[in-house]
Amino acid sequence: MKALGLDGFIVTNPSNLLYLSQFDGLDGDGCLVITPQQVTLITDARYQEALEASLPKTVNLEITRDYYDVAHQVLADRGYQRVGFETSASYALYRKLAALFGDKLVPETGVIEKLREVKDTNEVAILRRSTQLASKGFEALMSYAKVGVTERQVSNWLNNWMLEHGAQKPSFDTIVASGFRSALPHGSATDKQLAEGEVVTVDFGYYVDGYTSDVTRTFALGDPGAELRKVYATVHEAQERMFQVIKPGANGQQVDSAGRDYIADESYGKYYNHGSGHGIGLDIHEGPNFGPRWRSNVITENNVMTVEPGIYLPTKGGVRIEDDLLITKDGNERLTTANRDLIVL
């Protein structure tokens, strides 16, 4: 608070509320008011009994339907002058806060998100379980995927397997893109049937105990041909080169360049059209990030990151390999255990 020059801070982002309160039932219904003297969680009576049983004694609980009027009163009682709010708030919420706080309202971006980037021991353990379950899901999928089934059937099968084996829910619509459609980095599953000689890209993430994995694998149904085999080998090597430079103190641009420069040297540079990775945790996309513009994103011990180079050849097909890494004291540990080599079914 002192470093930000604030007398109070209002937290409204649902994931940040979960992170700070350790209560997963709010779903954005309320706000958290932080001052140097105390922390106050403001929500309505639907959550009162559960919160009274679980909320730390250091957190004051206010039950009301007028979340922001009460937040204003809490801060007014302390003679506030500068009140921070999260810029992720909707415009309607901003207008509500502006009407209450006037020119004392100060926009702040990424304050809690920055804290969330560094995982504690419990968070790392959960993310390890989440990523290992996703890896097992992919391995199980290899017994189902075959010529003739549709992309949508593959997506549904994987979703069902994950839910039956302990996942809470997908963190995004599972991507299954086969054949020419695998050249679409975010190709949603369709009723297209998988065919002989095609590559199939599957990108998936699932929540376990509130924290999500994010994994991508590309496999083939029969021989995909020399060109796509070379593309796969290039992506595989690019990811290996990224692994080698990922350690505390490296920045997002350095990591990205380690893979992107190799892909360019292999004459595929123009076919790599997205960033190289991002943090994961309570949300599927967190900081820090790997990419050409992310020089300011410096990696820290206990970040959990994805590394996801890809090459996409229009009308022919594409390859992406994505793994989840824990940043360790001296380097990194790959949490994803699924096979990274090209699987040909």
UniProtKB/TrEMBL annotation:
This is Aminopeptidase P family protein. The keyword Hydrolase applies. The keyword Hydrolase applies. GO terms for molecular function: aminopeptidase activity. Keywords: Aminopeptidase, Hydrolase, Protease. It comes from Lentilactobacillus parafarraginis. SUPFAM superfamilies: Creatinase/aminopeptidase, Creatinase/prolidase N-terminal domain. Signal peptide: none annotated. The lineage of its organism: Bacteria, Bacillati, Bacillota, Bacilli, Lactobacillales. Gene3D superfamilies: Creatinase/methionine aminopeptidase superfamily, Creatinase/prolidase N-terminal domain. Residues 126-329 form the Peptidase M24 domain. InterPro entries: Creatin/AminoP/Spt16_N, Creatinase/aminopeptidase-like, Creatinase_N, Pept_M24, Peptidase_M24B. It holds the Pfam family Creatinase_N. CDD domains: APP-like (cd01092). Residues 1-118 form the Creatinase N-terminal domain.
